[in-house]
Amino acid sequence: MADKKVSKPCHHCKSRSASVPADTTTIHYEKFWLYRHCSSVEQSHRQAQKAGQLFSGLLAMNVVFLGSAFISSMIFNRVAITLADVWILLSVLKVLCVFWIIYYLMGTSRKPHAVLYRDSHAGHIWVRGSVLLFGSCSILLNVFEIGYSTILVRCKSNVEILFPVIAILFIGTQIYFLWHHSKDCIQVQHNFTRCGLMVAVATNLLEWLLSVTNDTLHMEMESQLREVEERFTAPGNDTALCVCPNTTICRVFQEGYILLYPFNTEYSLICSSMLYVIWKNVGRSISHHHSLEKRPKFKLKGVLFGPVLGITAVIIGACVFMMYQIQATSLDPSHQVLVIYFTYYIVLLPLMSVCAVVGTIIHALEKKELDTVQNPTRSLDVVLLMSAALGQICMSYFSIVALVASNRRDLLNRLALAYSVLIILQNITQNIFVIDGLHRRHVVAAAEAKHEAKHARRCEQHTVAAELPGEEEGTQDSVQEHSQTPPTKEEKEEDTKEEQNCEACSQRRMSVLELGQEIRKFSLSYIQTYSRLTWKRRVLREISFFLVLSNIILWIMPTFGSHPLFENGMERSFYGYSTWFVIVNFGLPLAVFYRMHSINGLLEVYVTA
């Protein structure tokens, strides 16, 4: 008779089961394939979670290395590996990601006890809004690519038309997933969910890498484009069929593709960061107090000088950018526009640095406690800010060495040197200000909450008292007067016309009065909010809002083709064309992403100030 062996629970399990009531439902982590036996339940949970993260991280690393090898081979050996091969690899990964997202939406997230907790720090509305905006632009970009390939269908392969279609499906599915499930702390199917998320992260990173390399290749061949087109369009040449004809619709596709191209790179990086946060939250348990904590909402109150200065910087920067673009695309670009460009930066960057230093000092003077709660979103924000700033700092140091060693003292080189030094200082001071602000705990004062409640009750009483009782009395008097003498038909028609005119006039009067009352209420509440804030919170909000608008214009200018470091001949002649080209195209995408991610961090600092 074969006896069945029964495993005895350890003393940790006995003590835990004795302290927990019998009717309490507990959710256990699923055991990973590396996990076999552990003496403590909590320790087994941590080990299973670390093992799952390790395996899914290794899976993502292998996918990224494989895709990077394909893209590198395409750049250095176009005969063996072509762009179509890279597109096929990415299409396979995107289809797998779409299937996994559909399975997560229809299966995993609907299981019992699947999403018990939601991370309030993850998936802010401005982050999801940027995903929606950049994703929509990326979909429109692929639509333009499909239209352009359809026009040139004679010399385009099927892969070039199929790849944008798969990309549209992938982007649309991923936008829906991130918009609705970016805060999930999934408690079931941990390992499969982690692997699916890491494959999606790797796919977005490879999409970003391909976009960056394609952009650099386009910039490298831009000077030879006109010569190639003239050669193709020469009479008697059959390759002229592969050149876009001079039609309006074809020109729209070309210009639209070039205009929307930068949004695709930003979309891929933002999606990668959001997917990473979801991956960190898989299997995470959040305390009851932390889950019920109310996040402050974005309100445009308590700021006055920051928006004024920021809007001024944006308007001036837009004018400088348009002047730069007009001169850069002309046949004979002048150095005067580079002088104006560098001057704008030299005026704006010190102001931003001073504001960041003042904000850091105010953070030090405040008596707020540091937020030590585990927060994957904040940890990722800090890592991304520090790593993305390295791109701009790297380019600036290379530029400083070239400008100082060349010993040329003309105005343009001096401005470029000052620009590089100020960029380094601004990035460092802004990072310190943002990181320090992200680690401050937001405490809502009880007096402020009471004041808001009193103000709301006063507004309700004021609206109830302002219901115009005089009109009711006037209508009753008119009814009594009309009831004394029976009116004729003509008098009835005149009375109805007069009543309609009076009703229209009263409605217009009421609308004007209501509009005036709403404006008055808004202005009073704005002034009360501004005066109610302490001077420290007021200055922090002013600084944060000014830095948000400044980083927006500093993101727009390099994103849409303003690259003075590449077009300035000093660094290019010092390092050589190929070396300086690699330096700029390594640091420029990171610098663009740094500005975009700084906006996210500064908005968080503004809201919690």
UniProtKB/TrEMBL annotation:
GO CC terms in record: plasma membrane
Membrane-traversing stretches: 54-75, 87-105, 125-149, 161-179, 300-326, 338-362, 382-404, 416-435, 539-557, 577-594
Sequence segments annotated as region (Disordered): 468-503
Topology relative to the membrane: Multi-pass membrane protein
Top-rank lineage group of the source organism: Eukaryota
Start-end of Basic and acidic residues biased regions: 488-500
InterPro entries recorded: Otopetrin
Keyword Transport: yes
Keywords annotated in UniProt: Cell membrane, Hydrogen ion transport, Ion channel, Ion transport, Membrane, Transmembrane, Transmembrane helix, Transport
GO molecular function terms listed in the Swiss-Prot or TrEMBL record: proton channel activity
Subcellular location: Cell membrane
Keyword Ribonucleoprotein: no
Family of the protein in this entry: Belongs to the otopetrin family.
Protein name: Otopetrin 3
Organism the protein comes from: Junco hyemalis (Dark-eyed junco)
